[in-house]
Amino acid sequence: MSKVQTPRPIRGTQDIFGADAEAFAFVVETFERVRKLYRFRRVEMPVFEKTEVFARSLGETTDVVSKEMYSFDDRGGESLTLRPEFTAGIARAYLTEGWQQYAPLKVATHGPLFRYERPQKGRYRQFHQIDAEIIGAAEPQADVELLCMADQLLKELGVDDGVTLQLNTLGDADSRDSWRAALLAYFQAVRGELSEDSQERLERNPLRILDSKDPRDQAFVADAPKIDEFLTAEAEDFFGAVTAGLDAAGVKWQRLDKLVRGLDYYRHTAFEFVPDEGSVAANALGSQSTILGGGRYDGLMESLGGAPTPAVGWAAGIERLAMLVGEREPERLDVAIAVEADELVAAAARIAPELRLSGFSVEVVVTGSGRKRYDKAAKLDPAYLVSLQVRDGLAGYSARSQIDDNRETQIEAIIGKHVRL
RNA sequence: GCGAUCGUAGCUCAGUUGGUUAGAGCGCCGGUUUGUGGUACCGGAGGUCGCGGGUUCAACCCCCGUCGAUCGCCCCA
After folding, report:
1. Residue A421: its pLDDT value, please?
2. Which of A401, A377, A404 is nearest to A389 (CA)?
3. A404 and A279 housed in the same domain
4. Domain containing residue A66
5. How many percent of chain A have pLDDT more than 90?
């Protein structure tokens, strides 16, 4: 007779409960509220797509595509992938569902994403993001609006203190290509002196050398070619319009000309909200610093076979935001009913739903001895604690109230219909 | 994929240079002889010390392996 082994949860998944779950819900609720202020429309997206949706749009050589995707063949032999991000799927829907008719389209969503990575603080294999996109808008004001929304969201979550918007432009396709070529030539010349990781990056993604943490690289990074030297006039104007818009809107930002983002599709504006070094926020997040990131992805639609379509968007990690939000307890219980005599279970069964229909939160305690029932009810820390009992053969109640008079009267009117004071 | 640290009760953790029967708090169950009281007191259940080897008269403790977790690198939200 072998004992049944309880299955373990999958590495990198979370069972979120209690204060953490409250914080998670607070992030999502706040996002929903803010998104409506900016008139972003809610969309629900599939959790999995054909593998090519991500492989083609993110770039074959990116880490996400080359080693982090949860891909599998379905029964028809087709390769499917659990989404590692939102943008590619939304772009696909924009093309296949005829959403072009709504352009410029502002959409928002949230939900789980999957990446096969080593879990650590603030990083999970199944994680959750909130996401906002503006598709079919080429004007810099779209970038500004999106960043304003992000800024307001962080403020309303109360996590803006010690968090800075870092902003960069990667230029248009021409700017980016010539900058990339210059960087490649520059780093190739000192190849042997770079860290092993960066020699690797030279092959696959030279831009990433710029944000290497290795001191051996940083000496060269300081003097590396700057994107500003390669910007076309149009790209420079565009970035100027974005920064001017942010200034007008009162959104604080910081130029970081070595900020690049991991995915191939980014053009022009790229940004991240990052906690300041040494801040409480930075400490809470461990080494995973970015809480919200995004940018413009004008080239993405073409990689999925669509017409050239300008677009800009961002996503933020719900778990990381929840860590900054900190402890959040559920709202205080309104009424606890200790049913101290079994004859009164039926009375409680009538009182509780009536109270709830009137908008009070209610817990009923019916197990253990009378004394224990009162104890359990008291431990729920209700604003109004009522004990139902039989005295001299008659149903009665007594109460301890910390609720305002008006609500107390309302509660006692309902209780009084079923038992006497 | 690489590195570091850590695995003792449902949870958070004690556990002496290796020495009888491995402890506490919380939680759970029962009691405190019907109590207008409180977030009390008393008692009980619950552990093959992650798993497998080894060293030893003797291992929760030392060694090796393995699995798992945490944190970091890479990368990212």
Report:
1. 76
2. A377
3. no
4. 18-172+232-325
5. 63
